Description:
Layout: E1 3-5, H1 11-14, E2 17-19, E3 34-36, E4 61-63, E5 76-82, E6 91-96, E7 101-105, E8 115-116, E9 129-131, E10 140-142, E11 144-145, E12 152-154, E13 162-168, E14 171-175, E15 181-185, E16 189-192, H2 208-213, E17 272-274
Antiparallel strand pairs: 1-2, 3-4, 5-6, 5-8, 6-7, 9-16, 10-13, 10-16, 11-12, 13-14, 14-15, 15-17
Amino acid sequence: MATRDYKPYTPSRRFMSVIDFSELSDKRPERSLLSKLKRHTGHNNYGRITSRFRGRGHKRLYRVLDFRREKDSIPAKVAAIEYDPNRSANIALLHYADGEKRYIIAPLGLKVGQTLMNGPEAEVRVGNCLPLRSIPVGTTVHAIEMKPGKGAQLARTAGASVQLLAREGDYATLRLPSGEARKVHVLCRAVIGQVGNLDFENISIGKAGRTRWLGRRPHNRGVSMNPVDHPNGGGEGKSKGGGGWHHPRSPWGQLSKGLKTRKPHKPSDKYIVKRRG
């Protein structure tokens, strides 16, 4: 989908753009697949802030998505392609032949009326879900499981795609969007194709209020604070932290640029063939 710009009849409209929703179906969400979405706004169960600068935002209902795709050998017809306020990708409503309805992430090129299938016998076609051992090497996939049966965890955002590089024994090697090459078990499932809504990254927010609609509050810089409030605060005038130059840090002293925060010896290290660039 393309983006749509506005006439600059106000200063905020001048730079604002939105997704052109012409490709989406003109229908309300499937009520049986909606659930309440409790907002924690960056607080934990004790009410303490665990993620700063979060709060308010527009109310939403959660769309329950099928990330497992375990209904094998039952054809499903694409009934609609819809907007999902909880993610960057669009979603597709499937009507299975047995009467069940489910939402999935809509891949690029999926059209209303197409028939999709899950399982090892499914055809290698956009939107179908197969185990990695049944997918030809070189194929572009998305919505990939990391453990068999757990449900898709990799490549679920708008425009994301992963390439199947090789398959050896019980593991397949994938090249992730970050550039990392990683081994995943061949029984893990993946969906053929690339996630749709590629133009999501080209959206221009245009005004501060639109960011507030998304539940993001103003982010105060450390250098604008006092030394008692932040390691980068203080100094006469505009200074790079504490009156003299210091490495940028978080409010709790953690180096914030270049410090590797991944544990040095994680059990999953053996599955990483090549680190991301």
